[in-house]
Amino acid sequence: MKNMKKILGIIAVLAAMSPVLAHASTNVALNALSQSVKAGQQVTVTIAVQPSAIIYTSKISLSYSSDLLQETGFTLASNWMALSQSGYDNVDPISGTIIKTAGYPGGLSNAAVFGTVTFTAKESGTAHIAVAQGTQILDANNQNNFNNALNLVAISIAAQAAPTPASQPTTTAIVTPSLSANSASSPLTSLSAAAGSTGLDYMTYVIILIIVVIVIIGYFIWKKTSKKQ
C-alpha cells in the first residue's frame, strides 16, 4: 500500500508538471558566420527558432560582451512581423543586451531563421553572445514554449595587425655643379681667378717695359745734351 501511494504521488506530480513540459519545447539556436576574427572586423550571428509545436510570437533576448563587441545592426528574417513596442525592441550597448520581438502570421511549426545580428569586434579577447533570460516563445494560447536553454557562441578576437610601412621608391640624386661666382669649387670661379692672375702679371711686365724705355730715352737725351755743352 505504501509503495502504491508513492507511485500515485509521483504520477500526480508528473501530471501537474505535464503542461509545463509540453510547452517548454522550443529551442533558440545561435550560429556565428565566423568564430575567429580580428579587431575591426564584422561578426554576424544568425538566430534560429526550432519549435516542436506551432508558435506565433518570439521575443528573443540576447546578451553579449559589450567590452569586446559593438552591435551594428539587426535584420529580421522574411515572413516575420516586427513588434517595435517599448520593452520588446531594445539595444543597450552599456549592459550588452538586445531584445527583438516579432510575430509569425499563421503560426510556425518548423525550424526557421528569426534574424541576424551584426557586431564589430573592438579589441582582442574571447567574446560571448548568448540567449538570455527573458526570451519567450509563445503559442496560440500565449503559453511560453521556450525550453530555457541559454545557448551561446564564443568569438575569438585577435589583435589587429600593425600596418606595414609603405615601401619608399628608390631615387637617384642628381648633383648639379654650382655656378656661383663665390664658390671656390665653381669652374667659373677657377677660370676668373686664372684670368685675373694672368692679367695682373701682364700689366706688371708692360709697366716695367715702359719704365725701361723711358729710362733709356732719358739717358740718350741727357747724353746728347751733355755733348752740345
How many helices in DSSP terms? 2
Beta-strand content: 25-35%
Q: What is the arithmetic mean of pLDDT?
A: 80
Enter the CATH topology name of the largest domain.
Immunoglobulin-like
Q: Could you give a short account of the major beta sheet? A: 8 strands, mixed
CATH architecture of the largest domain: Sandwich
Domain module tally: 2
Q: What is the CA-CA span between the terminal residues?
A: 191 Å
Portion of residues within helices: 25-40%
- Radius of gyration over C-alpha positions, nearest whole angstrom: 51 Å
Low-pLDDT runs of 5+ residues are: 2-23, 179-199
Structural class: alpha+beta
Q: H/E series, N to C? A: HEEEEEEEEEEEEH
Number of strands: 12
Task: Provide structural commentary.
- The chain has helices at residues 2-23, 187-228, and strands spanning 27-32, 36-38, 42-50, 55-64, 69-76, 81-82, 90-92, 97-108, 112-121, 125-131, 136-138, 152-158.
- It is an alpha+beta fold.
- The strands form 2 sheets. Strands 2, 4, 6, 7, 8, 10, 11 and 12 form an 8-stranded mixed sheet that branches. It has a 4-stranded antiparallel sheet with strand order 1-3-9-5, with no helix packed on it.
- β7 and β8 (97-108) form a beta hairpin.
- The protein is rod-shaped, with a radius of gyration of 51 Å.
